[in-house]
Model the fold of this input.
Amino acid sequence: MTSPADKQAALVESGRRYLYPNYRQPALVIERGEGAVLWDVAGKRYLDFFAGIAVSALGHGHPALVRAVSEQVARLVHLSNYFFNAPNVRLAELLCKKTGMDRVFFSNSGTEAIEACLKLARRHFWAAGQPERLRVIAFDNSFHGRTLGALAATGQGKYKEGFGPLPNVTHVPYGDARAVADNMAADVAAILVEPVQGEGGVLPAPPGFLQELRRLCDQHGALLIADEIQTGVGRTGTFLGVEHDGVKPDVIALAKGLGGGIPIGAMLCIEKVSGALPPGSHGSTFGGNALASAAALAVIETVDSENLLAQTQTKGERLARALASVQERYPKLITAVRGRGLLQAAVLSADVDARAVLGKLQDAGLLVTIAGAQALRFSPPLVVSDAHIDEAVEVLARVLAGVA
Ligand SMILES: *Cc1c(COP(=O)(O)O)cnc(C)c1O
Done:
């Protein structure tokens, strides 16, 4: 009989031998989850405060998601977009009602949703007789995905190194409306912005910034594209992150939390640009298939039925307050606490080894991620309990006591 620990060690060894080595997984294998708790193959328990990078909005094993996916997998999984399927049509309608958009194109991931946004912007102006409008303005420190188009828009050199020439995107400092205004010209098709820079270190847009971008787009006839892949579907306490600023974009990208872990992304847009991508010009084999759509429907319906937007606001405040009190105890280790809703960060000071802290938190049974260089990002499932929030922050305090 092999022990659970031996079984886990053997899996880690095979993973390190056979998987493409583009990630740096620690020596454990997660086997199952329940709510905001995960267990590895060796039986160790972890608090899940990363939710698969802000994806598992309903946590693990939520009955509504389990039921929706189980029923749909038995009825119909996939068709392609050669035909309508019912969950997909219902999801499109629900998303339009939730966001004020008019049309939805479905993809399988965030980067594909961004790719669709960028192609839509280019082809919209091409079809309107302005083929010179190709340029996109995006922001330093942004993250938009890994396909060549989304990578071009990403404002962090570490993701782009070695991939050669990319489409022309102008990057300006996040929050600097003046710099955007200075770069607006007749060749700008779109401004692409995250309401909170997630991967960049959990940086909320400064007050008034998104409104100013809206104004500049209107003034110059460019499209405002909101990358809501991390902030959307309730993560910040409103359905969309831009609602905090009262701004309506022309185009929105969703993914991450949308399917609660089943891969699905979406590009939503206003009617004005609905002719930009006619049949044949863009598409996806899997995008919006019946299974993924049923999952997303269950997520959105549960966000409503369990009042998760209000919950996310109060739980987010509880988490932020608790993190701030840890900062008060260890002001030399934590320099800032920032975020919105259940997307929060405790920023470690520059001389703290963030990866080492991450490893110690994991040993102590708390899973979080690093965003930017030094931010410990807390993005638990939206269904996380107060008790788990308190427990997670106690683990952080204990680990920092050992570092101090
Ligand atoms: C994760 C993320 C993406 C990329 O999504 P993938 O599903 O990993 O392709 C794009 N933009 C933002 C803001 C993200 O957080």
